[in-house]
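Sample A.
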Amino acid sequence: MQDPVNSLCPSTVSRAEWGARTPAAEPQPLVVSPVPYVVVHHGGTKKYCYDQNTCSAIVRSYQNYHIDTKGWNDIGYSFVIGEDGHVYEGRGWDFVGAHAPGYNTQSIGICVIGDFSDRLPNEEALTALSDLISCGVDIGKIGEGYHVIGHRQTRDTLCPGDTFYKWVKALPQWTDHPVPLTQSQLIRQLDKTFGVAVVAR
């Protein structure tokens, strides 16, 4: 398990530690950094975990589903959190996810393992979520003026579950009117980040 470099950063179970497969293709770097959005998800099935071995097995099942059934290159989330209080590395801070249409290139996607339609994640998971977001801001991966949104705000889905979504909506950083960056804004960010001129076509 990786030790956090910063005191705000929770310990993270690396891809190697949870037994990740090699991605089906090279990951795409995030153009927008720091990102303006954090998208919160739940696993959507009543499979819960309270120890690293069980959580790792569930994270592997997510990756297998995303690669083998969805046809994606890798697990879709940036990070996954278990009710063991651990953060599991998905695509990480620096690569585009596959979790929220319209926001993948400008957000960090965090999934909490389980179905939270009728209850909240436990205190350990919620603390890990809050600490992970604070860590992202502290190390410059999430913008200081970031917004938090639920997955259901980006597409027709019940994710992250009604009870969990009420908790998300109570966060001061939540917005009910998320607006993703436009193509021209993304192009300007690409020029700023990589120092290259891009012509829109």
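Sample B.
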Amino acid sequence: MLEDTVINEFRIKPISPEKVVSSVDGETAYSLESIPHGKCDTPTKVEEMISNIPVTETTLGFESDTECDSDPYDLITYNADKSENARYEYGDHAPGEGKYQEECRFKPGEKVLCLMYEGYDAVFPGIVVGPLTEEYLRKLYETNEDMQIGYSSADEAVEEWLDWNWDSVIVRPLVRLKNDWEEMGDTVMVNRVYVFPYKRFEV
């Protein structure tokens, strides 16, 4: 069932040097701090709540996250100036469906900031490669042990890949990071709504 919309603020903090594998041209990654600001039950209240949140020098942006059975259903990200960054609406993002490879506001070759959870809880700069493709996912399956444990075949991975995860962008990280069980490769998948305009923070 649909849950109330949760409002979060994204702030950045210095990242532990131990989490950095490599960096290009002095680029910097940051640790992510997600700050909850409460719940809302109408779009008007969402806009009002976000408009009243003070912006700090370390604010990357905001999100309004409406989930259904613990999965993203309607998720909007906002820039630090509170303008809309991107929106995800559940459904039709798998190959062959109407919103497959939904257009990203950033074009291939653009430098961006990417927000990633999945054990990283980090914000890092990268270069947009393009939208996630079925071919990319199949190739990833051949080299990713975690995917091979979770899925019996590349076909199964493609078939069961969540709608939320299909709405992703392939990015070449300019700062490669590691978490407790893996490190980033030459390219990574980032949810489209978590790709933000490039900015350098002083922290």
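B remarks: Residues 134-143 form the longest helix (10 residues). Residues 5-197 form one domain.
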